[in-house]
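Data deposition worksheet. Section B asks for the primary sequence of the deposited chain exactly as it was used as input, without tags or linkers unless they were present during the calculation. Section C holds the resulting structure in token form. Section D is free text for depositor observations; keep each observation to a single sentence. Incomplete worksheets are returned to the depositor.
Section A, Depositor: J.P.
Section B:
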Amino acid sequence: MAFILSEDRIGSVSELKNAFERYQTYLSVNRERFPVGAFELASSEWYFSFDDPRAPHDAWLHELSISESQGEGGVGSVIIRIKLLNAQQDRFLQFSYSNVSGYELGLASQSGHRDWRYDEFRLTDGGQVLHEIEWAGAKHSARWKIISEDVAFSVVQMS
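Section C:
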């Protein structure tokens, strides 16, 4: 069940406001189940802003990496890192997903991913975080889904 992705943004301003309120209620009700990093991002005042330079909206993909570390007995742990150039083009936004158990990285455009448009954090039945991300230019260009133990976020100012 999505709350604030593109298919949920159809309608009036009040309907969009209601979608965000439903999402905030979902976060509040599930606060104890949410991994700390994902909850802090999703419930922050700035994350979904179109104006805050820390917000990923309209950022561009700079780098994506998927790595696997070998643990005891050869069991691997998958890590996904996303590095974005923010909309103001003055800093990098970095997401790091730990203990990834699933991902889908789709691209439906020959002109790249374009802008990070909308995203939301939800819980899987097993209590992991599902981060769904939509990329778009003039049309929908990509959709990513990452399931992980948690997500860490950092901002790096460009010099």
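Section D:
The chain is about 15% helix and 45% strand.
The mean pLDDT is 89.
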